[in-house]
User: What shape does this take?
Amino acid sequence: MDDLLTRAKQVMPGGVSSPVRSLKAVNGSPLIVVAAKGAKLKTIDGRYLIDYCMSFGPLILGHSTDAIVNKIIDQAEKGTSYGTLTMIEVELAEKIVECHPAVDWVRFVNSGTEAVMSALRLARGKTGRELIVKFDGTYHGHVDSMLVKSGSGLATLGIGSSAGIPDTIAKKTLVLPLGDKDALIHAFEEYGDKIAAVIIEGVPANNGLLVQSHDFLHFIQRKCKQHGCLFILDEVITGFRLGLGGATEYYGLKPDIVTLGKIIGGGLPIGAYGGRKDLMELIAPLGNVYQAGTLSGNPLVMVAGNATLDVLRETPSIYGTLRNRTGRLVNELSGILMDKGYPITSSQVESMFWFVFDQPDRQIRGPSQVSKDAIANYAKFHAKLLENGIYFPPSAFEVAFLSLAHTDEVILETLEKIRKGL
Ligand SMILES: Cc1ncc(COP(=O)(O)O)c(C=O)c1O
Assistant: This one.
């Protein structure tokens, strides 16, 4: 295993294909997985781990679900990429349009990042404006203009949060505090006629679970309308996670554009963006907003996405089951942790949850409210759980996901292991 890690580090930055997988944030080293089924991962050294990271969200039905795997095998025998229109692509688009209240038309891409990048281009193409408003503590993929943090003071244009982001691009993004209506009012007063779009995650879930109020989300929507800019709801995580209609339906919103990813690809690489027909008509080949992709609408991904959405559409009670199981796990786990004297705050939205090892019972609405102690404590918790056969997300800021494969028995097994192990 050490040997493989050494080899990985000789040919890949940090030995990984995405930074959080390094486990650096929890003082660990990359997990090497050889297989996965249901709720469990099998590591290269033959250990089984109950997985609460679930590939960061796509696997709502569990790992390696028969319904999906069989479809992928069948499709692979018929071809892996055609570079043409396919029936399965139309079928997946129809299902998304049928389920998602804000999507009249949809365009498939290959990642959530690409979906956001294209949605921003569409917003700029439509409005002829350049500025984008985002919020501190949200993540929208690694597109340059979204890897930006706030400048000093409110309503100042952003600065790059990664090397390699030109100032000219960072300055096209305004970064505001989450939940702060005054900041939004101020930004619109100052830059109103230059703002192309405001983008926010349905439930900000990339810096912990920073649940926003219904009121704040609707306030953003109203302000966008008032100032003639577009409201983009990033549903890469929340799409088909909070229900068939995502955060749009959950909060009763009417975004102009939504971005999707993760679940709609059934565990294969995907992204999508969609919205009102009059906006989507601006996309090439109909309109002059260009966007394309060699592997977009890839048939393997399309069958995996169709299989996933079929299960979710045929059995909508899955969402209630997932919510109840998640609630049970969160409550009982909080109880165990508190009995053992850990300060704990937990939050849950449907089948997503997050633990902060900090003062109990408070609502965390921004990333700055997570203390250094909480981050260090999470790293210890993570290591202890790993030792005991449980894999939690590898950062204090990543949220955990439940899948349908996390049955009552799996949850009991988890609680038992944690009770004994901590
Ligand atoms: C809300 C949100 N938007 C965009 C992205 C980027 O998606 P991808 O990693 O597929 O590029 C993510 C990824 O976690 C996300 O959570």
Q: What stands out?
A: The chain has two domains: 2-52+317-421, 66-314. The radius of gyration is 21 Å.
